[in-house]
Amino acid sequence: MDDCIFCRIARGEIPARKAYEDEEILAFHDIRPLTPAHILVIPKRHVPSLAECTVEDAGVLGRMMVLLPKLARENGCDQGFRTIINTGPVGLQEVYHLHIHILGGPDPLPPMLKR
Ligand code: 5GP
Ligand code: ZN
Q1: Which ligand is the nearest neighbour of the Cα of 103?
Q2: What CATH number belongs to 5-104?
């Protein structure tokens, strides 16, 4: 996945403000934050989207999920946060390397979707 932007961030070829890193997971601050805290959590292994995940990805997906509250707390989301995984054209996914958004800050977020 030579030209995937998140693979390039994971390889250190494009700079990003890192929030967490281990052998298989990287978290970094979104370049265009929508909320005071806006972090992206990715598997280092290239998976285009949640739609391509299989049971083999269950382990890393679970480890990403349990990281979220700790990362949120460390970044100013003391009273909760929102997670979003945009998937495919209907989900308006922009970057086709699976990522979980953490969104939050000190104040409540707007409703999830407008009616
Ligand atoms: P999506 O719409 O695919 O769920 O979200 C992609 C997110 O990646 C967007 O919020 C966008 O701001 C962020 N993003 C795109 N390119 C870069 C980049 O080069 N660096 C960082 N840190 N975030 C990026
Ligand atoms: Zn990738």
Answers
A1: 1
A2: 3.30.428.10
